[in-house]
Design a protein that fits this description.
The protein has 339 residues and is α/β, with parallel strands linked by helices. It has eleven helices and twelve strands. It binds S-adenosylmethionine.
Length: 339
């Protein structure tokens, strides 16, 4: 996935005159903090340099994951046309750019962010950009109330992992109250990220939410109930470590800029961003029979899809030419798509 040209231009403008070596150093330190899932009371992005490093090495990936999640929402709810949005832990405004790309009727957004450096960076990116009217506020969403009328679209992308586990349920309740229609939560596609998504999904279903995506049902997650995944670590719900051999995640291919490659000392012109997400709504979605939850395995005349199904089951299914049209659809299906 490529960034929208206006966002690419805004990032290039922000990075003009910066030395690749300095960005690489800041990016390496930032990546290490994210990998460690460090929660030491410091914000990961605290300075202008941190924010620019994020634009270089993380924003393309988080944008792609959020935009892909929005595409699943749009498919589950073709009638959904949000005009107001709330993005919490907005960083440089990633979700605002992705929402404007997916739903051009979006007119007004409120962005809450703890880091003044990140907020300033996001406001600079958005200046003169083809975006909805946006209000940015510095806020600690772990504790602060969320004021104002509920908004059509609420997003929390790559933020849960930065909050202390005991803060998460109350924040999710506040977000559900602040949500007039659809709420999206995205996390890194690791076992720990998926566990945070599962815990959020359970809490929101209990609060009355309908699940839009990726799950084609609101039953308990079938992967979480595989015998080998029923570890004590999983049952505690919020615990960040897991021995789970399987977890629900997706991948999106992201183009790397020249600076991105330099900062990561990478040769490839792309990377695969793995992410987990859940989208819930106050309104029921269009029924989906199943979702493809792993990369399809194709061989001559056969394709095996790993499916999560409407009845709450999950497993592999083989399709061959004998399945006619269904085979053709299965052959064309990709990881993450509704089937
Ligand atoms: C990994 S960044 C994600 C940024 C953006 N949502 C994205 O997807 O690119 C996590 C963001 O959450 C913010 N954050 C973390 N804890 C927060 C808190 N207690 N209140 C508000 N924002 C917070 C961080 O400052 C950072 O901007």
């Amino acid at each position: 996935m490529e960034l929208p040209p206006a966002l690419r231009t805004a990032i290039d403008r922000a990075l003009t005159g910066r030395r690749a070596a300095d960005l690489a150093k800041a990016a390496a330190a930032l990546s290490q903090r994210y990998r460690d899932e460090r929660r030491d009371g410091r914000l990961h992005v605290d300075t202008d340099e941190d924010a620019l490093a994020y634009l270089t090495v993380r924003l393309p990936a988080t944008y792609a994951a959020v935009r892909a999640s929005f595409a699943s929402i749009a498919q589950a709810r073709p009638d959904f046309a949000p005009t107001t949005a709330l993005d919490v832990g907005s960083g440089p405004g990633t979700a605002l750019w992705a929402a404007a790309d997916c739903w051009p009727a979006l007119a007004d957004a409120l962005l809450l962010e703890a880091s003044p450096a990140f907020r300033a960076c996001g406001e600079a990116l958005a200046r003169d950009a083809p975006l909805p009217r946006a209000t940015w506020r510095t806020a600690d969403v772990a504790t602060d109330a969320i004021d104002g009328e509920p908004r059509d679209l609420v997003t929390l992308a790559y933020v849960l992992n930065e909050l202390a586990p005991e803060m998460r349920p109350a924040l999710l309740q506040r977000l559900w109250q602040a949500n007039a229609d659809t709420l999206l939560i995205v996390e890194p596609g690791t076992p720990a990220g998926w566990q945070r998504i599962i815990a959020a999904r359970t809490l929101l279903i209990e609060a009355g939410a309908h699940v839009l995506a990726p799950c084609p049902h609101a039953h308990a997650c079938p992967l979480a109930h595989l015998p080998e995944n029923r570890t004590p670590a999983f049952r505690k719900g919020h615990v960040a470590t897991s021995t789970a051999p399987d977890w629900c995640h997706f991948a999106v291919r992201v183009a790397r800029s020249r600076l991105h490659r330099l900062a990561k000392e990478a040769e490839l012109s792309w990377e695969d961003e793995k992410f987990s997400y859940v989208a819930v709504s106050r309104r029921p979605p269009r029924a989906t029979a199943a979702r493809v939850i792993a990369r399809p395995r194709r061989a001559s005349g056969r394709v095996t899809l790993k499916l999560c199904r409407h009845d709450g089951s999950a497993g592999e299914q083989l399709f061959s030419r004998r399945d006619g049209q269904t085979f053709k659809r299965a052959w064309r299906s990709d990881w993450g798509e509704a089937f």
